[in-house]
Amino acid sequence: MMQNTAINVVANYTMTKYLISIVGPTAIGKTALSIKLAQHFNTDIISADSRQFYKEMHIGTAAPSTEELAAAKHHFIHHKSIQDNYSVGAFERDALQKLETLFKSKQTIIMVGGSGLYVDAVTKGLDEFPDVDKSIREQLNSALQTKGLKHLQNQLKALDTKAFNTMAIDNPHRVIRALEICKGSGKPYSSFLNQGKTERNFNTITVGLTAERAIIYNRINQRVDVMMENGLLNEVRALMPYQSLNALNTVGYKELFNYLNGKWTLDFAISEIKKHTRRFAKRQLTWFKKNESTLWFDYETDMSNILKEMEQKIASHKA
């Protein structure tokens, strides 16, 4: 009954298209829920996980398995190479084009991913920033090479604590982007966020999965152990010639590069992967909690209960 009811609620509003966006911290179960919902609504899945775009990165990004990919039609999984320059703006354009095509035959589309900026790019549009002198970025890139990421992170913390606490500070591209806006405009990077969003021709229902922090951290630790058992070290070893690429300067890869380069022991590298992933999960929750319209559920909530609240949300759009 629940399935028929939910579909009927959506079908009753034939002029309205719905994007169901599933968010939450890493390792919480977003992929599993997205597949269940895609099967329930007989629809496709848009991935908004920026690390899963790259075809060379399988294990370390927790990309959907072969079985999961076969269970529902996925888009934006392994469609790029680590050598491609693929920005959030390009993803916004490509994802909107794909949604336009899919909505011609489907009422509801599922989107899933833990990359908050990429999720927001699709659902709200990107923020507009002032033009700044290109020499600022050149100086910051030089500082990254000579003084390291930590130096830039400290600068960002001093200039924009809000951005420092909410963005992916382990991503040098993001840190440099925020710093160049701070330095070039004289205003905090975060002050330009969420100022005015583009209207979309579809409604978004955001579903968030969460759990007590101890449970999230335990799931992360277990996932990292499973990744190592599944061959993450060999995956990273094969990518050693490309370790300087921005796509690989990410958790799970950079730590094992340090091990393979003789800087760390393997046990320490694994512990650092777990620590950095836990920090990333904390930032994810901070980002996603900003959306007050999100329907939050414990990660063990039965899908029938999630569908029930989604029905109410859909009905409220036309109340």
TrEMBL record:
Summarize where ATP binds, as residue positions.
G24, P25, T26, A27, I28, G29, K30, T31
Site annotation (Interaction with substrate tRNA) points to S115, R137
- Name the Enzyme Commission number(s) assigned to this protein: 2.5.1.75
**InterPro entries membership:** Dimethylallyltransferase, IPT, P-loop_NTPase
A GO BP entry: tRNA modification
**What residues form the membrane-spanning segments?**
none
Q: Work out whether the entry's keyword set contains ATP-binding.
A: yes
Pfam families per the record? IPPT
Subunit details for this protein?
A: Monomer.
Q: What does this protein do?
A: Catalyzes the transfer of a dimethylallyl group onto the adenine at position 37 in tRNAs that read codons beginning with uridine, leading to the formation of N6-(dimethylallyl)adenosine (i(6)A).
* Name recorded for this polypeptide: tRNA dimethylallyltransferase
